[in-house]
Amino acid sequence: MSRLLATLIRAITGGARTAAAGHNDRKRAAAMKQKTTGCVACDSKNVDELAPDAYRCPDCGYEGGDGYAAYQADLWMKEADALDAATKRARARELLTSAEADLAIARDQTVRADEAVRAGGDSDKLPLFLAALRALGEARQGVERAHYLAFGEPTTALADIDLGVDEAAGVSASSLPLGGGALRRRAAQIAADVNGVTAAHAAVSEKLASG
Ligand SMILES: [Zn+2]
For residue 35, how far is its CA from the centre of ligand 1 (angstroms)? Predict the structure, then answer.
């Protein structure tokens, strides 16, 4: 399940729990853990907690942690919730336009990646896979956000998409398989995921057109 989605669902279903006493215990435990490991960028132990497992390092300015993506998604949702209905629709349309461009890139790069794998040899295929995955990731986030703005609740349609992304490092070559057969299966999976995001995109477009 994507972190954004997990955060969206948690925000919808568990909003009341965040005020409960357990929250402070978890916050303390997370802060303790981060104090032990320190900043991954400069090793400073002097980090400021932003949210559970999310921190900012005052020494080097690095922001990160396992919970950082969820923290950013929370911030985004609070902003989204505060918008009036017309602005929500306008933002959702912008996100869909941008996601459409990302989907076109993801489709194109996936075809080229698959062709490069079939051609064999030493052609550098990994940048094509990475470009496809980055564009797919952008498109999915845009469609998830547009869905939240249009429907007022998170979508569960895109939960099964696994980008193989290391949240801290972003999309990286180490998440890709090495063999030709495995790479071709990966390309087919990315193409299927592009179709999934395209279908979710269409559903939000339809909702915006009808409402
Ligand atoms: Zn630092």
Answer: 12
Which DSSP symbol is given to 65?
-
pTM exceeding the 0.90 threshold for the entire prediction: no
Evaluate if residue 197 carries a pLDDT over 90: yes
SS3 category, 45: coil
Tell me the percentage of the chain whose pLDDT exceeds 90. 50
Q: How far is the CA of 173 from the centre of ligand 1 (A)?
A: 25
Cβ-contact 4, 69 below 8 angstroms = yes
Q: What six digits make up the tokens of 97?
A: 């336009």
Ligand 1 center to residue 38 CA distance, Å? 8
Q: Give per-residue pLDDT as tens, 64-106.
A: 988 888 899 889 999 999 999 999 999 999 999 999 999 999 9
How do the domains of the chain map onto residue ranges? 3-78, 83-210
Q: What average pLDDT does the segment 2-28 reach?
A: 44
What is the crossing angle of helices 180-210 and 126-151, to 10°?
A: 20
Distance 63 CA to ligand 1 centre (A): 8
How much is the mean pLDDT over the chain?
A: 81
Residue pair 18/81 in contact by the 8 Å Cβ criterion: no
Q: Is residue 204 within 8 Å of 92, Cβ to Cβ?
A: yes
Q: How many angstroms is it from 67 CA to the middle of ligand 1?
A: 17
Please tell me the distance between residue 81's alpha carbon and the centre of ligand 1 in angstroms: 32
Ligand 1 centre to CA of 50 (Å) is: 14
